[in-house]
Specification:
Elements (H helix, E strand, L loop, with lengths): L2 H13 L21 H9 L2 H5 L12 H4 L8 H10 L5 H4 L6 E3 L5 E5 L4 H6 L6 H11 L9 E5 L13 H18 L3 E5 L1 H8 L5 H4 L3 E5 L5 E7 L2 H6 L4 H15 L5
Helix pairs in contact: 5-9
């Protein structure tokens, strides 16, 4: 194996989320480790009750989310982007190439919210630019919307999780104050959440996405303002299940009826 093969192997492990070596010294993991005779003797002498007792594990204290994210001084999108960029509470920031903030009209009629950036978005620093993003652009164009004229696109997370894995509940909880501030600054007429993770984060729904899609819910801003919010399938899911595009088209028509936009 040459140098580039080694480099490619390391890069693949990094993409999959590996961040640390297992130990300071190399070890042959195929060789069985046999305990010393003294250790074996001590194991024999341990009472059976002690062997079967469940170990006590101290759970880490929950992170006080409100104390970690302070956004009262953020008054515009540039300041919000800087606040996200400077926030060190998310470990996934260390493995991502760059921030994926948001993109669209400064005064959008509707804001589309996905789950997290993928590899293409991480590389380009823009949301929804891969295959699923291209499908989303075609979908919203069919009802007279575009990210350049009248809508805005972002995600719950602004950093790509390693290996495109699902965001953890803690990562979502830490990212949610930034997303809520994002929406408060944009002040759209409507929201559209794409997929179950985004719906759960913003609306705290209990249903799965198959049952929840097509429903309108109220997203309540910190100011008390209610924004009508449509739950839809994520475009990535529609690529895997094209038969569901008929339901997605029905949802798009409902969004068009709410906004009164034209179709192409």
């Amino acid at each position: 194996m040459g140098f580039m093969d080694n480099f490619a192997a390391l890069e693949w492990q990094w993409q999959m989320g590996a961040t640390d070596f297992v130990a300071a010294q190399p070890r042959d993991w195929q060789q069985r480790v046999v305990p010393s005779s003294a250790l074996a003797l001590r194991l024999v002498e341990i009472p059976s009750a002690a062997m079967t007792a469940a170990p006590t594990v101290a759970l880490p204290a929950p992170i006080p989310m409100s104390s970690m994210v302070k956004l009262s001084s953020v008054m515009d999108l540039d300041s919000l982007r800087a606040a996200i960029q400077n926030f060190e509470g998310l470990e996934i920031k260390k493995s991502a190439k760059q921030i994926v903030f948001g993109e669209g009209a400064p005064n959008p009629r509707v804001v589309f919210v996905g789950e997290a950036p993928g590899a293409d978005e991480d590389r380009m620093g823009r949301p929804f630019v891969g295959v699923s993003g291209q499908l989303l652009d075609r979908m919203i164009a069919s009802i007279g919307l575009s990210r350049t004229e009248n809508c805005y696109i972002t995600n719950v997370l602004h950093w790509r999780p390693p290996g495109n894995r699902q965001p953890t509940p803690q990562e979502i909880a830490l990212s949610l104050p930034f997303l809520r501030k994002h929406i408060a600054l944009l002040q759209p007429e409507a929201l559209c959440v794409l997929g179950g993770s985004a719906a759960k984060a913003l609306l705290d729904i209990n249903e799965g996405i198959t049952r929840a899609r097509g429903q309108w819910r109220d997203y309540i801003c910190d100011s008390g303002r209610r924004i009508p919010t449509l739950i839809m399938f994520h475009p990535a899911y529609l690529l895997r299940a094209p038969a569901q595009k008929a339901l997605a088209w029905r949802d798009l028509q409902a969004l068009q009826g709410r906004l009164g936009t034209g179709s192409h």
